[in-house]
Amino acid sequence: MTAVTLTRARGVIRARLDAPERRNAITPLLLDNLHAALDAAEADTGCRVLVLSASGDDFCAGTDLSGGVPDTLPAPGDTGELPYWRLLERLTATPVVTVALVDGHAHAGGVGLAAACDLVIAGPRARFRLTEALVGLVPAMAWPFVARRTGEQRAFTATLLAEDLDAAAAHACGLADEATDDAEGTLRRTLVHLSRVDRSTTGALKTWRTRLFPRDEHLGADAAHTFLTRLTDPHVHRLLGRVTTPERAA
Length: 250
Known about the structure:
- By secondary structure, this protein is of the alpha/beta class.
- Helices cover 42% and strands 16% of the residues.
- The chain has ten helices and ten strands.
- Helix 4 crosses helix 5.
- The strands form two sheets. The protein has a six-stranded mixed sheet with strand order 1-2-3-5-7-10, with helices on both faces.
- The protein starts with a strand and ends in a 9-residue tail after the last helix.
- Belongs to the enoyl-CoA hydratase/isomerase family.
- This is Enoyl-CoA hydratase/isomerase family protein.
């Protein structure tokens, strides 16, 4: 069973989120599959680029909460970094160039998934929306990666208003690097440009960027605790209970 389909071409691994019936929502299986895709890209010394794309109308609908929410916080020893946070960190730090091809709806954690990538290409069907506040949640894990692109205040406003950003608006605020009517064509041209930069150079660039703009080493654990604390709030339970779509995601 898989939620992600991998294909390989010269120097490129493409990880396609392939659970459209679940709106490509973030599940433990999807996270495991994406971590495995990164493992494969990093183990293949000839791989320069990992492309994330998706089947169906949704790039990623955020965290799947259709199974309900926890009533209590995990034990203290279990409140470290979560697999979602580790994935975003890996997408940012890996020596492989990471590209998100978004040509569908990216909601909540799906926005963070795209924002963590080195390059974001927004196709004609792309919509970006941070929806967590509508159900009483805080996008604690996605925010650092969104704000890195848009700036702190722009990320706050987009969350507070649950703004629905099309490709042009996402490009204007820095959330997307390209807004295009031809997503696949733009991806092909981007891959040609990326073929001119070797993997060791990409790794050095990313290492230096991390040195220039370091993140608090405790931020991942704090973000997880913030998100989980909100999930256990009775008010959030009530708000989530009003969501009537078959797959609740945040």
